[in-house]
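Comment thread on ticket #2218

A.B. wrote:
> Attaching the input chain for the structure job we discussed in standup.
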Amino acid sequence: MRIPGATYRVQFTPVFGFREARKILPYLKELGISDFYASPFFLAAKGSVHGYDVADFNRINPDLGTETDFSELAATLQKHNMGLIQDFVPNHMAYDQRNTMLMDVLENGRFSRFFGFFDIQWDYPSEDLKGKILAPFLGKLYETCLENGDIQLELDSRGFGFTYGDLRFPARIDSYAKILSHISAGRSKISEKGHLSRAGLSAVLKVLGNLPRQTGDREKSICRAKETLWRLYSSDRCIRNRIDEIMAELNGIKGDPGGFNSLDRLLSEQFFRLSFWEEAAHEINYRRFFTINGLIGLRQEKEEVFQHVHRFILRLCESGLVNGLRLDHIDGLYDPSRYLAMLREKAGDVYIIVEKILGKEDSLPAGWPVHGTTGYEFAAAANGVLCRTGNMDRFTQLYKRLTGCEKTFERSLQDGKRLILENELSGDADNLVYLLKKIAGSDRKARDLSFKELKDAVSAVIVHFPVYRTYAGPEGPSKQDRRWIRDALSRARKDDPHSCPALSFLKKTLLFTPTGTDTDQTVMTADFVMRFQQLTGPAMAKGFEDTALYNYNRLLSLNEVGSSPGDFGIDLANFHRFNEYRQNLRTPGLNATATHDAKRGEDVRARLNVLSEIPEEWERRARLWMHINGEKKPHVRGRPFPEKNEEYHLYQTLVGAFPFYEEGQVGFCERIKGYVVKALREGKVCSSWLEPDEEREAAFKTFVEEILSPSKDNAFLKDFIPFQRMVAHYGIFNSLTQTLLKITAPGIPDFYQGTELWDLNLVDPDNRRPVDFERRSMLLRDILEKDETDPPSLIRSLLKIKEDGKIKLFLTAKALSARALRRMLFEQGTYQPVPARGAKKNHLVAFFRIWDDQWAFVTAPRFPTSLVREGEDPLGKRVWGNTAIDLPDGAPRRWREIFTGERLETDGRIFACEALKHFPVSLLLNEDEI
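C.D. wrote:
> Ran it. Output below, let me know if you need it in another format.
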């Protein structure tokens, strides 16, 4: 099995495909990357810019290149001895006309070979959805779209279909007879040739009216009939005119509402029901990815679905072109354990990681045959240890004083989840409760519980659920699962003691123990629990990541996926415990510090952590800016906007993301304007995606323009820029520490595209902007050449001009080189934290990695504002004084510092001033092995 040494995540886009990726491989190899880690490259929905809306898992996305282009990329990877880790999306597919499997279901219903592939509730309680799937893609109410003529029947080589803008839905095969039955009653004259064509049409109708029940034979007959129909339509003008007349009559004329009755009747007979997109929040009968209507869930627990969907990717694994798999949204699956067992059996010894967000008390299920996660938990720990935890109360109070916000983060999270369940996931919750109501009907103690009582109970438990999900299967919940469930039930009961009967029944259901016989009741109960787990994840994701993280703004560096904003970072002891735990895991997951799902770039967070050290100064500045900019706020419905909480959020964002150079400020204002609109909609207080308040959004954008205006009399920028530059200076040292920790702590270092230089991106789509790889390659070559010829001069130049990011690039390349040199040390070596002693002991993160006779010693600073003045570097004896680390028994005496190349002789201790004499962080390797 190939275990990566260091991974580099790249986002494929229509402008960065296989050819562009192939060009950067020499640079990545030189940087020290062992494995190319790619976003999905399968056929996606038309216009996709990210690839997660897969339309066909067994075809390469032509927007990224040809199969030859992909083969050449794979060959170049092998030439450089680099692996390919492929992002794979097992949970869902695009609800899109390119998804031929789903279109086949919409055309053939239960006769489709793919009928059971998608997670659709065909027996939905509502009569108008029985035997249909909702298609919530209309921009207005169905009646309005119909009578505006926006929905049209058309014919092309694929057969009859209904179009709405760029969308197309196939007509069910049974509708062909109704449409073509009008052929002889038309006004158009039928030529002699036309009469022959009409006979051909009759043959088509005869075939379609007597289709075989055998799936394969049925498909062949339909295909031949469609080909004949299209040939007749294309070759005979009279037939084409008559069919066009029929379609025009059915399509109606705008201004004549009665003229659309025939089209409405035809649409009512389809296997789909078109509706206004907002309806999906309240009534939906298919499982989505979170709240995205255009992504429909797959039933991967079924063997035939797994085999079909994985055919291509398993072939790539078997051939060695793909060495590892990153599984997106594993929590969305009905039975993740069964899925992973099937995948491991079929894929063999490939490196597998899962996109799984672990809370501070959470861990991967023990039986999962995977190597670890994509690294959200490491990002949270590495970021958290750079936050001054002792200032939590001060920050809580200043946040209240500046904004008036009194809520705790826990309450913000609960409110966010409750809001999501009441609005965006209301229909999804209803589907779950319908199932629970059926179970209750067979229990005389629960039979009288109303639908509302059961829904309130389910919602209350989900609101208080402490983790994303549990992993109970048909065998019932595990001990850990039971603890989470009981905890949520207890909290829900405290919130509403009157709900006890419904909660008691829900408790009995969620904590079920199989009887050993598959009765209908047992099967339904297990199904409910497994579907309940599929809903707790989206509720947490939307309530936490896409609501609470945009409302609770005490310190935005902590508002990140996988983090715990209510905790205000972690102390050094807990950081070390976290790494010791990871070192003891049987397999290494990724150490990430930035991902495509991050709310802000890793260096934005590094800067904002500086604020945790200076609460009084930060409060003074934020209060001053609120005063200066007060008159610049536009009024919306008689009130100034943005309000204080949103304004406070904005100032932190500006401090964190402001460019180093003036030329980098071009376009910055536009980026911030886009960000604040997204933040408002995600927060769902002043605006939302369902009900955007365009007036407030426009006011916020105007405010951003006003305060960022480069005019000479802008009092805000005059005060903001000096303060921001000070924060940025200290943030550099946080960033260097974070980068070194990522490379040397237990786990595999992972780099998101472009983050080897300063990462000042915001949430997507900002963090998916093109990366200038040519510049990075040029800078790296220059660095490595100077490191060979004159290391001291290089170090001095890197420290003199840190704003260009070369110092971070240098650190990355040198540390990855050392990691490759001592691969077993960093992959398998023990992790041994060591306390420092002396005046600056709390300012050091220090630990050893030990494997056999190989040693590494890592030292990095934190809390730089109380180490050095602005403009100074945390180097030498003047800063570190007598601060030292005692060496453990058996430690080597001779070391070499890998960044400066200096030799170090020790006698039982290492002084910080020696390790950090010329460079802000230090990685020492015992010299005997160098």
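A.B. wrote:
> Thanks. Noting for the ticket: The longest strand covers residues 844-851.
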